[in-house]
Write a structure and sequence with these properties.
Blueprint (H helix, E strand, L loop, with lengths): L8 E8 L5 H9 L7 E6 L10 E4 L4 E4 L4 E5 L3 H14 L7 E5 L6 H10 L1 H4 L2 E11 L3 H7 L1 H8 L3 E5 L6 H14 L5 E4 L6 H5 L13 H20 L16 E8 L5 H15 L3 E8 L9 E6 L2 E2 L3 E2 L10 E8 L3 H12 L11
């Protein structure tokens, strides 16, 4: 069943570096019946080879695939493409679709696309960002992260990481790459994928938080952060481990920080602090997400979700998703240390977050 036409449609952003397997994953997904009512937008020039699936040309840039999906290639304005799709859907000129998958080019910095999906008023009423899925090549992923900052950002902003070609990678190299990905983004589950085969529910439900179907992901974030910190401490204490700092690694600049706060905070002060962070340090905030306990209604947590300068309008959940009612916020940052975030939080919100879960 498609969603009512008035409901904002979920958008899943599929990203990943050149050769990381986006083409194979997307083609596999489009062959599944769960995605038969899906619109696909290939951002800019794209790499997806869909010609063998095209059966009907609806307009200059819009086609219907034999799976039933709509597909268009965007070489200009993503906003125009989304708006046109929504208008034609509303007028009944195309079959109703219930979701959109936007696939980026392999060299793309995902931040501008995320800005568009989260903040542009022309599409805000018709769509909502459901999640970011990033493919990583298990064989060449480490070298790619070393050489390309875009690949690091693609990993850092993801809600789910698909480790492709995992059957071709050496087990030790695969373990090392997985550890590096966890350091970059402790909040994203890592799933090994062979020949692009992935369960559509894992991709379409990639959003960082779904209050109707699962409890807070922050528990898992914190467990992974503890594991990563212990792993790094062990490496530093064991010279024989063979680990050494590589100055060429772009992800040395990217860090994950989890802030935990016992007491409730004032909404106005917290909102003011977020605005300042987005204004003054937005270019360094790759991703921010969390649950906040507010003093006026502590039983209804505030959901926070932002990318760089742009934050989704905050909203409250009717109740906490677990017995843990503490404020928990995860920051994925670039060249922004935990101390600066903590100091400004204390100055403007009047509380000190716990320091036990820092990522160095």
């Amino acid at each position: 069943m498609s969603e009512p036409l008035s409901a904002p449609l979920p958008i899943t952003l599929l990203t990943g570096f050149l050769g990381s397997g986006k083409t194979t994953v997307l083609n596999r997904l489009l062959g599944r019946p769960e995605l038969s009512d899906t619109a696909v937008i290939i951002n800019e020039f794209g790499e997806i080879g869909l010609d063998h699936l095209l059966v009907e040309k609806v307009s200059e840039n819009l086609r219907v695939l034999n799976s039933g999906c709509l597909c268009c290639t965007v070489r200009g304005d993503l906003v125009d493409a989304l708006r046109e799709l929504d208008e034609r859907r509303t007028r009944g000129e195309v079959a109703p679709f219930s979701r959109v998958v936007v696939e980026t080019t392999g060299l793309a910095d995902p931040a501008p696309v995320l800005h568009t999906l989260m903040a542009d008023p022309a599409i805000g009423s018709g769509y909502r960002l459901a999640g970011v899925v990033t493919t990583v090549d298990a064989v060449n992923g480490a070298a790619t992260l070393d050489r390309y900052a875009e690949a690091v950002k693609q990993v850092a902003v993801a809600d789910r990481l698909l480790l492709t070609k995992s059957d071709l990678a050496d087990a030790r190299d695969l373990e090392s790459l997985s550890g590096r990905l966890r350091d970059l983004n402790p909040g994203a589950p890592i799933q090994c994928v062979v020949d692009g085969r992935v369960d559509p529910s894992d991709v379409l439900a990639a959003g960082w938080y779904d209050p109707l179907h699962r409890s807070s992901d922050v528990h898992e974030w914190m467990k992974r952060e503890r594991h990563a910190a212990e792993h790094r401490a062990h490496e530093h204490e064991s010279p024989a481990h063979g680990h050494r700092h590589d100055a060429s690694r772009h992800d040395e600049h990217v860090q994950a920080h989890c802030f935990v706060l016992e007491e409730a905070v004032g909404e106005a002060a917290f909102a003011h602090w977020l605005e300042l962070m987005a204004s003054m340090r937005g270019e360094r905030l790759l991703r921010v997400k969390g649950l906040v306990q507010l003093a006026d209604r502590p039983g209804e947590p505030l959901v926070v979700h932002g990318v760089q300068h742009v934050f989704h309008p905050a909203y409250r959940l009717p109740h906490w998703p677990s017995d843990d009612h503490r404020t928990r916020i995860v920051f994925i940052t670039r060249d922004l240390d935990r101390g600066e975030i903590a100091r400004t939080f204390h100055k403007f919100v009047g509380a000190r977050p716990m320091d036990t879960l820092a990522i160095a």
